[in-house]
């Protein structure tokens, strides 16, 4: 009993969060920044914050995550961190030679009131930013929002500070990536290629946080959108934002600055969200969906129908990031499963509205909550009151899974104790096949484990 203090009785809490279902804004900003080629993320705050952000990303991706810090001490904490950041920018361009630095703030620098725009302008005026190099910045105060908010803020900063409308339209579609894994970003590019559509995907962490081992250390791996491509997004025909929490703010910024119209779709997790994304992309580019992709869809539908008996009616509890949970809930319904408890630590009204709308016809009585008090402790209490057959969430769910003896599928961020999320896509039809396979695997393992000897089946 690792979580022995979790009791069944649920008390209304207004301020206290226990075991949050989210993490800190700068982690998202750092992850997004790594999706630009040659970028060194910079944490404007204390060394401790930067170490935490780097180590969380490193543990999730099993890759070294480079980032710099303003290294606040007592002086900077009282008088502000301008001198630290200007010196840092000078040192970083001299020693580490990135193409750009992406600065995000922290709780401490936000509390002091440091103005990143003003400090970066000063660094520029002082000649600390070499010709052809760039510094972008995003506010990421972690006392509000979550890692998803931080990611969205940095993506919006990319659009605001890089996109240019030259007046010469380019026949390309922007895909503003919500928080997805590197193999998911690669999968988006593969799908676009199959459709024959030219896209600009940003950010793009493929080949950065899943870079191949070559025996040689490269400070800036080959992946990531290049600065000229990022600038060209202002001349694109239109944008598709993936995820209204993590992707949409970037598309809004692009529309505001360069008048590039956009549509928002869910991150293509599962059958219907992938259908919608592909239809949107094919319509935006004026192309047909090729047979190769229709075949992938057919294979997913085949799996779903063949295995329906094992999915049917199974109760599921899930927690994680809103842009994942919305299409994931929809996919669980398509598998004829019953999502009964759904939690996201990221605040925002649209989450509950979307989930309620998805569940309205079949499971209107499900427990759904998001925001600071929607924590893993509450999820555990809900499970104690109404047990489930399956738990889906990040690594922190393993304690509940063990205590309550529930089959567990790791999904989301962070996953600290398994691999796979860095190698195989979770999105598109192929990602849905993988997810269904993982769910089936744990459900069948449970069935095998619990079956009495006389009904222990060789063939399922
Ligand atoms: S929550 Fe605030 S203080 Fe804590 S690591 Fe994140 S930025 Fe730093």
Report on the architecture of this protein.
- α10 links the parallel β7 and β8.
- The chain is 45% helix and 14% strand.
- The protein is an alpha/beta fold.
- α4 crosses α6.
- The mean pLDDT is 97.
- It has 18 helices and 13 strands.
- The chain folds into 3 domains: 137 residues, Rossmann fold (3-Layer(aba) Sandwich), CATH 3.40.50; 121 residues, Nitrogenase molybdenum iron protein domain (Rossmann fold); 160 residues, Nitrogenase molybdenum iron protein domain (Rossmann fold), CATH 3.40.50.1980.
- The structure holds iron/sulfur cluster.
Structure in a nutshell:
The protein has 460 residues and is an alpha/beta fold.
Any descriptors?
460 residues; alpha/beta; Rossmann fold; 3 domains; five-stranded parallel β-sheet; 18 helices; 13 strands; 14% strand; binds iron/sulfur cluster
**What's the CATH architecture name of the largest domain?**
3-Layer(aba) Sandwich
Q: What structural class do helix, strand and pairing data support?
A: alpha/beta
In spatial order, strands of the major sheet run: 11-10-9-12-13
Question: What is the count of DSSP helices, taking H or I runs of 4+ residues?
Answer: 18
> What small molecules does this complex bind?
iron/sulfur cluster
Share of residues in helices: 40-55%
The low-confidence runs, each spanning 5 or more residues with pLDDT under 50, are none
CATH homology superfamily name of the largest domain: Nitrogenase molybdenum iron protein domain
**Radius of gyration from the alpha-carbon trace, in angstroms:** 23 Å
Query: Average pLDDT value?
Result: 97
Major beta-sheet overview: 5 strands, parallel
Could you name the CATH class of the largest domain? Alpha Beta
Q: What separation lies between the terminal Cα atoms?
A: 33 Å
| CATH topology-level fold name of the largest domain | Rossmann fold
| Shape descriptor | globular
Question: Into which percentage range does the β-strand content fall?
Answer: 5-15%
Q: How many strands in all?
A: 13
Domain module tally: 3
Subunit structure: Tetramer of two alpha and two beta chains. Forms complex with the iron protein (nitrogenase component 2).
Family: Belongs to the NifD/NifK/NifE/NifN family.
Enzyme class: oxidoreductase
GO molecular function, one term: nitrogenase activity
